[in-house]
Amino acid sequence: MSTAMVEVRSVHKSFGSLEVLRGVDLDVRAGEVTVVLGPSGSGKSTLLRTINHLEKVDSGWITVDGTLVGYRRSGDKLYELREREVLKQRTQIGFVFQNFNLFPHLTVLDNVIEAPVAALKRPRRDAVAAAEKLLARVGLSDKADAYPKQLSGGQQQRVAIARALALEPKLLLFDEPTSALDPELVGEVLDVIKDLAASGTTMIVVTHEIGFAREVADTVVFMDDGAIVEQGPPAEVLDAPRHERTRAFLSKVL
Ligand code: ADP
Ligand code: MG
């Protein structure tokens, strides 16, 4: 039995003449944390976005929990899923962005219940009860009625994490979740992510926080120029990198 939560196979993606993913292969096992490192422009965000089908791949394929992302197989043929089916697949994957992307006109509580009520048609009362638990989990029980602009960046990002968890996703994707934060607020967000990791949530985290990678990652992936240069446990990739490009990158961020 396979325990792969994510399989990425030979994925290529170009924007015009710019090839951004040049044949990416990646496996993420259920319950594991994968940290993706790499210079700006190396394709990290695009890789996350293809896993969520926010970007279509040009070739190759991706599965999440054994299901093809964005396509349905029939015999030897692949058929593109309709938008509605894509949206349904997407509800099983949580995405946390660098800039939080909260709805500014909704309270914290309403941000967290929006997707369960609108997308999953959960009864509002059940969604509120679940949201209250999630807000407690990220340490924001007292902010349920606040609006995003009344919160610090660290608090907004913790709301964004609660909102992602509200769909009970199989997989969580984080795209530089602490890059937009003042340094003193980074720790509170990383602590929430560490807590999720300890509870067995499968996630892929793009970050430049090497200490976090060393502590939390099962696998560290180093990307450069649209390809995975090396991957392995933190003790290998961070402390004994085999490739010159990995060493050069680490010497800049450490
Ligand atoms: P990273 O997250 O590692 O910084 P990205 O995946 O965001 O890298 O981007 C990789 C390359 O693809 C960059 O050169 C970027 O400018 C380009 N790119 C990303 N998205 C688009 C897009 N929608 N249209 C055109 N170029 C894009
Ligand atoms: Mg990026």
UniProtKB/TrEMBL annotation:
Q: Which GO terms describe its molecular function?
A: ATP binding
Q: Which domain of life is it from?
A: Bacteria
Entry-linked Pfam families: ABC_tran (PF00005)
| Ribonucleoprotein in keyword set | no
Boundaries of each ABC transporter domain copy?
A: 6-250
Key words, A-Z: Amino-acid transport, ATP-binding, Cell membrane, Membrane, Nucleotide-binding, Transport
Primary localization: membrane
Q: Which family does it belong to?
A: Belongs to the ABC transporter superfamily.
The name on file for this protein is Glutamate ABC transporter ATP-binding protein
